[in-house]
Amino acid sequence: MTFQVVAFGLNHQSAPVSLRERLAFPAEIVRASLSELRQVMGRLAPEQALVSTCNRTELYMASHNPGQARQQALGWLAARSQVGHEDLMHHLYQHEEPAAVRHVFRVASGLDSMVLGEPQILGQLKEAARQAQEAGSLGSNLHHLFQQAFSVAKEVRSSTEIGSHSVSMAAASVKLAQRIFGDLSQTRMLFIGAGEMIQLCIAHFAAQSPQGLAIANRTVQRGETLAKSYSGEAFALSDLPRRLADFDVVVSCTASSLPILGLGMVESALKKRRYKPIFFVDLAVPRDIEPEVSKLSDAFLYSVDDLAGLVEVGVQARRDAVSHAEAIIDHGVQRYLHWKSSREQVPLIRTVKDHVAALQEAELVAAQKRLARGEDTNEVLMALAHGLSQKLLHGTYSALSDPDPQTHQRAAQIVPSLFKLQEPTESQADGPASEPDR
User: Fold this and answer.
1) 246, 242, 315: which is closest to 278 by C-alpha?
2) Apex CA 147: angle with CA 141 and CA 150, to 5°?
3) β-strands 188-192, 249-252 pairing
4) Which listed residue (23, 49, 51, 54) is catalytic?
5) What is the pLDDT of residues 413-429, one digit of tens each?
6) Which residues pair with 189 in a beta bridge?
7) What is the mean pLDDT of residues 367-381?
8) What percentage of residues in the chain have a pLDDT greater than 70?
9) Which residues contact 313 (CB under 8 A, 6 or more apart)?
10) Given Cys at both, which of 47, 112, 138, 386 links 133, Cβ 3.0 to 4.6 Å?
């Protein structure tokens, strides 16, 4: 049975954050969601992987009926997110092989990201592969797809300038904060969460030497470990209502399925501050901060989509390397398709191998009987070699001498490459052909 790779989903280009957050899969439910999807899909698509980040939600599948599998998985997504089928279709992109393979490779290489060439997506794809493996939904097709994607991404990163001079979300956030406060060394900063994106943001903001730095996290001990590196403090999320007013800059990125900072909490904090502005960056999907906060005159709230314009600054140097990166990706796609094509021939290769083994066994048994009767060893070996070669070549001789012109012409075209033969010389072409043994 031949399986085809399917990739479909939505990202920052096809859907607003208000829709992306409804289709987001927090890390702690990905495995359970894959198990649920596997039950829904049955044998139609036995391989699935789920990628969910702040900028995209994508489903990769290997199916023997790509169209039907896509429709069934789409119904599951619509039901889970409670988004109408037509509304969802309006924002979804769908790819079938080979376009699906190319899409996955472009995602891994950072060519499909909001920040061109950003490296975080590669780690997120590796995590998606690991979760699919643990959920039992990563079969040979998707496993090889991911491994090839990682290899292509590594080559793009090392062979091109696609990742140089990167303008990350964190750097863009710093620039926005400087527009509000100017010198950030006079501000106090709060980071909500302790994941990879928050760690990246802290590194960028801490370089501005703020007056104070704090981390609010569900697990205080993890927050303390991170804060210690920056001479900061850590506290529990439950202390946010009491502490929020202490900070000028607030950056949040958690895996919470519900907002952490609501309109009422922010209004109270601004009142305590006598309406001194607070700069908010919400990098989470689903969002950590209620969007209504942006309506407050002294709250400056930016989501991942709001940062899209800023991250475009300075990317021209990387765009010059895109054509080189695309060529690497094209080569990677061809390698993957060649691997799939060779796998499809495995049953035929096994049949040929078993057939040849049977011929060997028969000739060997005949030779052993002749040796047991005391016949000359050299004659027996010659007969063994001759008999085996004649049996192996019988099909070739039959095709080349077939009375049907199309059959023997097709055989004449295939045989030289099959046996890696050189073009016959003039003398060979004119000389008498030896007749095969019948």
Assistant:
1) 246
2) 140
3) parallel
4) 54
5) 888 888 888 765 555 55
6) 213, 249
7) 92
8) 92
9) 167
10) 138
CA distance 101 to 104: 5
201 is catalytic: no
Domain 4-165+316-344: assigned CATH number: 3.30.460.30
pLDDT at 219: 92
Q: Where are the domains of the chain?
A: 4-165+316-344, 169-311, 349-424
- Does position 309 have pLDDT exceeding 80, yes or no? no
Task: Provide the pLDDT for residue 255.
Answer: 87
Burial label for 225, CB within 10 Å (0-12, 13-18, 19+), is middle
What whole-number distance in Å separates Cα of residue 276 and Cα of residue 178?
15
- State the residue for tokens 């863009």: 172
Q: How far is CA 85 from the centre of its chain?
A: 25
Q: What is the mean pLDDT of the chain?
A: 89
Global pTM reads 0.71
> Residue range 150-167: average pLDDT?
82
